[in-house]
């Protein structure tokens, strides 16, 4: 009798972006494993009813955690996430088994009128819930008003179209993946407007002891992307955990390959101080590069800045 292939269950959040990313990963996996059968299991989480926290970022990854729980329990074989949304301290039973080829890490400005950041009228209301984006916007344009915005990517775009916001800042990767890149007006350079660590990368999480799945996922691993995000995440590991702190970090593989340059940027609460660091190192030792850039940041006072943010965020949360 013909043996039927077992179906591999794939967990994802239900947002349009999460589903699109899962389909992208599956398209690559199907190519590498033509015989394999996949079933997408949408795990609806609290995050999908529009409850992402605002500026607090305290609960980073809570919704992704729910999906990872399903992996742990064996309800699904692996889960597909935005790397940027999953915390460094993954549960011991789980691993990031695969980083597929990363999309652009850049942030972009979205609005209806085709206005670049420089061209927005004074007093324009720009939406973002990221401290990192907010502080970089305010530094460029102290005369605009940066306000928190809720909702998933398409909701945020709708809020610009409806006129509730004059513009929003989003990740180019997310907009592109859900087929909405035509609303992009301006693409910020990663050295001027430093993205979040891991931005643009997809992480596939599975059980550490599931050798078969790990092996299969390895077929779509992109070593360059892995090295880049490893450097970025090693950096946040060493600088105050990264939460509640507007830390930008992006690693860029050099043209010749083999080496990566890691750019990092942190701001003080009032935006008056900005520490920017850059270092190039071997892609083979990406973790070491991340740690050494962290050391450079700390030497220049990043830890004191982080403490300032911790206090400020506590105050905001009390008021919220
Ligand atoms: N926090 C939400 C989130 N998580 C991943 C993306 C986009 C894709 C990515 O950054 O990899 C977004 C939206 C955004 O930041 O615009």
UniProtKB/TrEMBL annotation:
Q: In the record, what terms sit under GO molecular function?
A: hydroxymethylbilane synthase activity
Q: Which residues form the Porphobilinogen deaminase C-terminal domain?
A: 228-297
The protein depicted here goes by the name Probable porphobilinogen deaminase
Q: Name what cofactor the protein needs.
A: dipyrromethane
What else does UniProt say about it? The porphobilinogen subunits are added to the dipyrromethane group.
Q: Could you tell me what this protein does? A: Tetrapolymerization of the monopyrrole PBG into the hydroxymethylbilane pre-uroporphyrinogen in several discrete steps.
Locate the Porphobilinogen deaminase N-terminal domain: which residues?
8-214
One Pfam family, please name it: Porphobil_deamC
Cofactor info, note text? Binds 1 dipyrromethane group covalently.
Broad enzyme group? transferase
Cross-referenced Gene3D superfamilies, in alphabetical order? Periplasmic binding protein-like II (3.40.190.10), Porphobilinogen deaminase, C-terminal domain (3.30.160.40)
CDD domains associated with the record: PBP2_HemC_archaea
EC number(s) on file: 2.5.1.61
Catalytic activity, per the record?
4 porphobilinogen + H2O = hydroxymethylbilane + 4 NH4(+)
Question: Do you know which InterPro entries this protein is assigned to?
Answer: HemC, Porphobilin_deaminase_N, Porphobilinogen_deaminase_C, Porphobilinogen_deaminase_C_sf
């Amino acid at each position: 009798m013909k043996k039927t292939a077992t179906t591999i269950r794939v967990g994802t959040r239900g947002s349009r972006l999460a589903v699109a990313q899962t389909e992208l990963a599956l398209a690559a996996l199907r190519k590498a494993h033509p015989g394999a059968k996949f079933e997408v299991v949408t795990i609806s989480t609290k995050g999908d009813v529009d409850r992402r926290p605002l500026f607090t970022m305290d609960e980073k990854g809570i919704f992704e955690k729910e999906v990872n729980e399903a992996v742990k329990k064996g309800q699904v074989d692996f889960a597909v996430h935005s790397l940027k949304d999953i915390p460094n301290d993954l549960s011991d039973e789980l691993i990031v088994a695969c980083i597929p080829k990363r999309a652009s890490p850049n942030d972009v400005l979205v609005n209806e009128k085709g206005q670049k950041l420089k061209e927005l009228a004074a007093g324009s209301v720009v939406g973002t819930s990221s401290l990192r984006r907010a502080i970089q916007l305010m530094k460029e344009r102290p005369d605009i008003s940066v306000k928190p915005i809720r909702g998933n990517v398409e909701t945020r775009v709708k809020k610009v179209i409806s006129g509730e916001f004059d513009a929003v800042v989003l990740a180019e990767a997310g907009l592109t993946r859900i087929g909405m890149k035509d609303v992009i007006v301006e693409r910020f350079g990663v050295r001027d407007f430093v993205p979040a660590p891991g931005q643009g990368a997809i992480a596939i999480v599975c059980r550490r002891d599931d050798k078969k799945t790990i092996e299969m996922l390895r077929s779509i691993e992109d070593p360059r992307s892995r090295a880049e995000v490893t450097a970025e995440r090693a950096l946040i590991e060493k600088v105050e955990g990264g939460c509640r702190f507007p830390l930008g970090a992006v690693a860029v593989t050099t043209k010749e390959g083999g080496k990566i340059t890691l750019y990092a940027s942190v701001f003080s609460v009032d935006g008056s101080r900005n520490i920017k660091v850059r270092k190039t190192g071997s892609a083979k030792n990406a973790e070491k590069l991340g740690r050494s850039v962290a050391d450079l940041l700390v030497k220049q006072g990043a830890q004191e800045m982080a403490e300032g943010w911790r206090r400020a965020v506590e105050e905001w949360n009390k008021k919220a």
